[in-house]
Design goal:
The chain is an alpha/beta fold and 460 residues long. The protein has helices at 82-95, 98-114, 140-152, 184-196, 216-226, 241-251, 255-263, 279-288, 296-301, 309-314, 331-346, 361-376, 410-416, 442-456, and strands spanning 4-13, 16-25, 31-35, 46-47, 52-53, 56-61, 117-124, 155-162, 202-204, 206-208, 233-237, 269-273, 291-294, 319-321, 392-395, 423-428, 431-435.
Length: 460
């Protein structure tokens, strides 16, 4: 790709809107120049058709669960909760094949691009064939995700998951969890397999499903295998009150407390959900440099509960967002859910705002997710800055939600007064992958997804 320059009337740089942005992109698809205050575009510079935001990282995804979104919204028993949802979700987890996985993921990844995400971290725990049998190529399902991401044009961080038992007191997996079976060695090998592909928008780390699903000895072994390598390490933690109670019964300590004392996580670690916490745990995690990943759409859909947002922000713990089960697939809705959940719980407004630091809730949450998301994806630089990958979202200010909004309030309106965002263009690595909301392979990708859904759910 030859070097080229772009000019935008305004762009989100250094945590705020800046006027007249001149942006250079090098031959590797990274920002080589970021200059503001340029009143008019220089000659031979492409003018972007709207204000520019950086692309955001979706820091927690289970791509295959996109095939289940919208199919668990009925109840035929006296109670319905996370655990009953999980049992129903296993139906697709048990059946989906590698080609079907690629088709579902490609469709999802195009949706995520439309939702303003340009990188996604896939927390990937389907390691074996539909009946739990080993596959000839251990990385077949990882390759399905990588190929789907390449097809869509999105950046991807593959996180193969350590998953070895059904619970704290259940040392083996259930029959319907056989596809998830893994060892520290397998997880580490899968990470290496993905790294060896050496694709420009692909990287890898590792994940631990949860404290209930991995023994302390296995977690220790995986940490030893990873060593000091600077790769992301993700783990579900404290999503459900039952998980907290089970951890207390098994270890005598709450999950984050136990993790901090036994494994001393560092800045590579990302704790997903971290919904049910106490202040002492938040302060303990803050001291480690580790981050959290909240998934408000999924946490609302599953009835997980509300995180302690004000305490996490007070403690300056890096906070990124993810779409998890993909019942929501755009970041403005995730940020809106995050703030509205707090408003409903506390009966206050603009909970995330800080009059002394950032009076706008949207901007404070956006800046937090932007900064922490890069770390969660294993990207050393993220945003519109020299050296970072040249990802950008060109806003369409002609959409009904944004017409007439003063430029200084565009982000506020996008999060709190809009529906699904509309972008004139989405760039990943300097290349336009969506134009006016359309992907070049849209029809073919949608047709394959429709075929897979009909195959998976023809009996429903």
């Amino acid at each position: 790709m030859p070097e080229h320059r772009l000019w935008a009337p305004r762009a989100w740089i250094d945590s705020c809107w800046q006027e007249g942005a001149l942006l250079g992109i090098d031959s590797q698809g990274h920002w080589s120049q970021v200059q503001t205050g340029v009143a008019a575009p220089p000659p031979h510079t492409r003018v972007l058709p709207g204000p520019v935001l950086p692309g955001l990282v979706n820091a927690h995804s289970h791509a295959f669960q996109r095939a289940f979104a919208g199919l668990s919204e009925r109840r035929d028993s006296d109670a319905d909760d996370f655990w009953s949802w999980r049992d129903r979700m296993y139906r697709v987890a048990q059946r989906i094949t590698a080609p079907q996985m690629q088709a579902v993921a490609a469709h999802l990844y195009v949706e995520l691009l439309r939702g303003g995400y340009t990188q996604v971290c896939d927390f990937h725990y389907l390691h074996h064939g539909p009946h739990g049998q080993p596959m000839a190529d251990r990385a077949t399902l990882c390759h399905a995700l990588a190929d789907a991401a390449a097809e869509a044009g999105i950046g991807l961080t593959v996180l193969p998951v350590l998953y070895e038992r059904a619970g704290f007191t259940q040392p083996v997996l259930r029959e319907d969890q056989r596809r998830f079976a893994s060892t520290p060695t397998l997880v580490h090998q899968l990470m290496r397999d993905m790294q060896a592909l050496a694709r420009p928008r692909l990287n890898a780390g590792v994940a631990i499903h949860s404290l209930r699903a991995a023994s302390p000895s296995a977690i220790s072994e995986l940490r030893w295998l990873v060593g000091d390598e600077d790769v992301p390490i993700h783990m579900h933690v404290a999503e459900q009150t039952q998980e907290v109670q089970d951890c207390l019964a098994a270890t005598g300590r709450r999950p984050i407390d136990w993790l901090c004392q036994e494994f001393a996580p560092d800045a590579r670690w990302q704790l997903v959900h971290a919904t049910h916490t106490i202040r002492a745990e938040i302060d303990a995690l803050a001291a480690t440099g580790a981050g959290i990943v909240v998934c408000p759409g999924t946490e609302g859909n599953l009835g997980d509960g509300f995180c302690s947002l004000a305490d996490w922000l007070r403690a300056s713990v890096p906070l990124s967002i993810g779409s998890d089960s993909h019942v929501t697939r755009n970041w403005p809705e995730e940020l809106r859910w995050l703030e509205y959940g707090q408003r409903l719980q506390l009966r206050q407004r603009n909970v995330a705002a800080s009059p002394q630091q950032q009076p706008a809730s949207a901007a404070r949450l956006w800046n937090a997710a932007l900064s922490a998301g890069g770390r969660a994806a294993g990207q050393s630089l993220w945003g519109i800055m020299p050296g970072a990958r040249a990802d950008a979202l060109v806003m369409d200010t002609g959409t009904p939600a944004l017409v007439g909004i003063p430029p200084s309030h565009l982000l506020d309106a996008l999060v709190f007064a809009g529906a699904e965002p509309q972008w004139r263009e989405v760039l990943v690595g300097g290349e336009v992958v969506l134009r006016d909301g359309r992907h070049a392979q849209q029809e073919a990708i949608t047709a394959r997804f429709r075929s897979v859904m009909e195959s998976l759910w023809h009996e429903a």
